Amino acid sequence: MLFNSYTFILVFAPITVLAYFALCKRKFTVAATGALVAAAVFFYAFWDARYAPLLLGSVLFNFSLGSILCQSGTAARKKKLLACGVVCNLGLLGYFKYTDFFLGNLSALSHLPIPAAHITLPLGISFFTFTQIAYLVDAKNGKVREYDILNYTLFVTFFPHLLAGPILHHGEMMPQFKRLKNKVLTPKNVSIGVYLFCIGLFKKVVVADTFGQWVASGFDPDHALTLIEAWATSLFYSLQIYFDFSGYTDMALGTALILNIRLPVNFNSPYQALDIQDFWRRWHMTLSRFLRDYVYIPLGGNRDGRARTLFNILLTFLIGGIWHGAGWTFVAWGALHGVGMLAHRLWRAANVRMPRVLAWLLTFLFVNAAWVFFRAKDFRQAISVLRGMGGLNGLALPVFLKGFTMVQALGRPCGTYLDLLGEGYRPYVWLAAAMAAVLFHANSNAMAARFRPDWKRAVFTAAVGFYALLHVIKTSEFLYFQF
Question: Which residue of the set 324, 344, 441, 471 is catalytic?
Fold first, then answer.
């Protein structure tokens, strides 16, 4: 089930919220928790019921192992149990996510016709796997005090975060699920939650999906992009994934807040970053936290000298890249960001300052170019777009500039793929407006923080929500669902 569907907005979410608080009001707190768990399983099974047992089996396995880790035992025994748990979780993730990738590469290397397994990737498996690995590590380190299977199941399956994050920590969620005041319907939280949800829905169905149409045409493998076309395509994708992911995050946080649960902030104006480290402090913040706490620091962090620190950084980003998708383009994307982080570390060590505008520009251009690998189906497609961005495929100007005397004097051909789509100057207006919004407008976190219920915000929320609902005609998946 998708957040951006009439089924979720008009049926599932209202029934779930009303049923939960109705049970809480009658002091049936265990039944209320069970209702949320049942709703989450239904929410997940709505996509494909065959994978609901996989989700529940994963929950049962990790809860059982975590309970053992929480009990007294030798450090060596706990270490072995943790290793077993991590291997089992990663093995499950690897089977579903990387089998076809492995077989395809094996076939290419061996020159043997090895058929693909065509395994369907269960939605959210990367997120609930990482969430539970973090739980096992915390259990082994004595940071977990939870032996209730029902509450643990709610922690993992809580439907606002289940399919695309944020990646949660056990310690930040369980106190909220147990807090008695969170069992009472809170009008202010409902107001802010609906406000956030409507903003997120607008970002997804109005902005991100609009850019998505132009991105799909731009990444057409049969079309060699010229300079303006290639830059427009790359910028369109940078904005598509920005509004798609931040839209999902807003809807997840808003839905959870209606239930009096505060999910961790996962997105904080990343395109305003002044360096690549700042970008990763703002983009998919809970993934960055997970990679830092459960990959980078266990590898040694910055404790063993500069060379080892740089190696640990690069390896962490390579793991982050392959986590996003089973393809060499994702590895390249992770490697690029790893190299970018190494360059940032070395630049910072040299203690050389850069003007803020130049720092922002270099950071954004780097992130924008790296997104090309993230979006491309293969290296050939990525290189084709990058060639266009470098001007190696020539220059064609938009048709709407054809009437200008200066353009006529240049003698350049006019007509891009956007003109073939009949879009005219509309995409460029959207591009300028979206860039202005992400660079200068307050983000949804800040807007929610200063939210005060009044008629102006009520009208704004209703208008944004209604306009977005009108665009929920053909539901489209969120980009991060495929990861």
Answer: 324
Residue 397, φ and ψ in degrees, nearest 5: -95, 150
Closest CA to 236 of 112, 372, 95, 106: 372
The tens digit of pLDDT for each residue in 123-155 reads 888 889 999 999 999 988 888 876 689 999 999
Q: Do 146 and 220 reside in the same domain of the chain? A: no
Picking from 43, 482, 26, the residue whose alpha carbon sits closest to that of residue 252 is 43
Q: Is the dihedral of CA 168, 172, 175, 180 positive or negative?
A: negative
Residue 387 carries which side chain, given as an amino acid letter?
R
CB-neighbour burial class of residue 428 (10 A; exposed 0-12, middle 13-18, buried 19+): middle
* Distance from C-alpha of 392 to C-alpha of 427, rounded to nearest angstrom: 23
Q: Whats the size of the chain, residue-wise?
A: 483
Query: 29 in a domain, yes or no?
Result: no
- Summarize pLDDT for 224-274 with one digit per residue, the tens: 888 888 999 999 999 999 999 999 999 999 999 999 999 999 999 999 999
Please give the radius of gyration of the chain, using alpha carbons only, rounded to the nearest integer: 24
Q: State whether 223 and 139 are in the same domain.
A: no
- Please indicate whether residue 324 is annotated as part of the active site: yes
List phi, psi (to 5°) of 474: -115, 105
The Cα 251–Cα 123 span in angstroms is: 17
The model carries a pTM of: 0.91
Residues 123, 47: contact at Cβ < 8 Å? Answer: yes
State both tokens at 126: 């990367």
Domain that holds residue 329: 189-482
> What amino acid occupies position 63?
F
Asked if the structure places residue 437 within a domain, the reply is yes
Distance CA 110, CA 238 (A): 37
CA 234 to centroid of chain Cα atoms: 18
Sign of CA pseudo-dihedral 476, 479, 480, 483: positive
Assigned token pair, 95: 């089977």
Is 261 domain-assigned? Answer: yes
Do both 170 and 142 map to the same domain? yes
> Are 110 and 152 contained in the same domain?
yes
Does residue 305 share a domain with residue 236?
yes
Residues 6+ apart with CB under 8 A from 395: 226, 227, 228, 412
Q: Specify the DSSP class assigned to residue 414.
A: B
Asked whether 40 and 177 are in contact (CB, 8 A), the reply is no
What is the spatial distance between Cα 414 and Cα 412, in angstroms, rounded to a whole number? 6
Neighbours of 123 (CB within 10 A): 22
